[in-house]
Amino acid sequence: MGGRSGGLGMSLGELAQHQETARDEIRRAEPQRRSVFISFTSEDLPEVNLLRGQAKNKDIELDFIDRSLQEPFRSENAEYIKRGLRERIRQASVTLVYLSTDTHKSEWVDWEIRESRRQGKGIVAMYAGDKSPVKLPRALSELGIKPVRWSHDGLVRAIDEASKSRE
Predict the structure, then answer these.
(1) pTM above 0.85, yes or no
(2) How many other CB atoms sit within 10 Å of the CB of residue 75?
(3) Are 129 and 112 in contact (CB under 8 A)?
């Protein structure tokens, strides 16, 4: 047979190479699904749940795997909580920080931002409404991360850029 495949005029190796090239082209053409850790204060859970719901809507070009906590860790042990959060952040390619007027007061959000940067993750800070909160978590200010307004297109673009900047 000489390594040729049924009348196609190419070897099995050449066929495999063509298949791999076709798969690469398809991957480039499809929007990439991002793995996102959402950092937020517990008071903002209703807004974050709205964001999660929009990401599941097939008609919206916002597609990510939510790696944030659905339920808080039931522990007072800070090191135990940090271990769990580190693992969630490790699984994500981007950390999305949901900003509200009180986010800057949260030590946990600040820690999650710093841990995300330590792990080399892209970070996006997002706020709802017309004005960015005046006070930002200290880590965002120190890292020079500018908040973006919550819009579908802006959020998709910001998550995509943050993911690519860390790949």
Answers:
(1) no
(2) 10
(3) no
